[in-house]
């Protein structure tokens, strides 16, 4: 605690969610190396001495190395976050802070690398899970159903507790980005997969044992259901393994992308924004990963 009071970098990191701390520490370490501090411990760097021209040089180096604009923005925001804490600690003046804030990341954008998972593909994945006689079959179907059916992030899914679920309303209360409490909804079929998994899990309990407070358990080899909560890495493994079984490379965030894309297709952008809980509607629009065939069909409707 004493260290965080006297170090703007540590104070900045402690303000982040645990899932973001590792990423931003890596970003700041790479930024420090590029700024000439490769031989200095990250916590020992005098970040408040950093000047705008140094950050401008950092952005230029990232651009020269082919880093995408979003990645460049991540670096700039990380440095800016540390400088904000330095200002709060009276290590720099407001004028210095404002000068640092004028430094912009590399402009531009890149096409999304995400995949739009169609309903037929999700059905195939559910069939693969149903054919798996191990407990993993029921659990993985429930995980995929909740991710695809509600559009929640993998970090939100691993933190889900039974107390946050309303089975009658088919709602899930989660803590999202920015420590915001959100309510998400999932369809009947997704809740049916979740109920099947939870019923099976309860059947495995010994007499007198209480059910776990969380939703998804880690399962070891030998089909042993542990009393441990599943991890984000396990969600990644589930998506990759079940995707390979249907011949497609899938990342966990593809479920969220596909959910948002489907809502945009079948309803409109504003409803998709509300269900995704995005502050900026442009963020929601960036999740639209409809394929080239849909775009061609839209253009082909403009016949003379």
Beta-strand percentage range: 5-15%
Helix content: 55-70%
CATH-assigned homologous superfamily of the largest domain: Intergrase catalytic core
- Quickly count the domains: 2
Shape: globular
Distance between the terminal alpha carbons, to the nearest Å? Answer: 70 Å
Q: What strand line-up does the widest sheet have?
A: 1-2-3
Radius of gyration: 23 Å
Mean pLDDT: 89
Give the low-confidence spans: none
CATH architecture of the largest domain: Orthogonal Bundle
CATH topology name of the largest domain: hpI Integrase, Chain A
What is the CATH class of the largest domain? Mainly Alpha
Query: Could you spell the SSE succession in H and E letters?
Result: HHHHHHHHHEEEHEEHHHHH
Tell me the major beta sheet: 3 strands, antiparallel
Domain Tyr recombinase: 112-301
Pfam families: Phage_integrase
Keywords: Chromosome partition, DNA integration, DNA recombination, DNA-binding
GO molecular function: DNA binding
Task: Note the main attributes of this structure.
single chain; hpI Integrase, Chain A; 2 domains; three-stranded antiparallel β-sheet; 56% helix
Provide an overview of this structure.
With 304 residues, the chain is mainly α. The chain has 2 domains: 2-101; 119-291, Intergrase catalytic core (hpI Integrase, Chain A). It has 15 helices and 5 strands. It has helices at 2-6, 8-14, 18-34, 52-64, 69-88, 94-101, 119-130, 135-150, 154-158, 188-203, 232-245, 253-266, 269-276, 281-285, 292-300, and strands spanning 165-166, 171-175, 181-185, 217-220, 224-229. The strands form 2 sheets. A 3-stranded antiparallel sheet has the order 1-2-3, with no helix packed on it. Strands 4-5 form a two-stranded antiparallel ribbon. The longest helix is centred in the N-terminal third of the chain and has 20 residues, at 69-88. It is globular and about 60 Å long. The protein starts with a helix and ends with a helix.
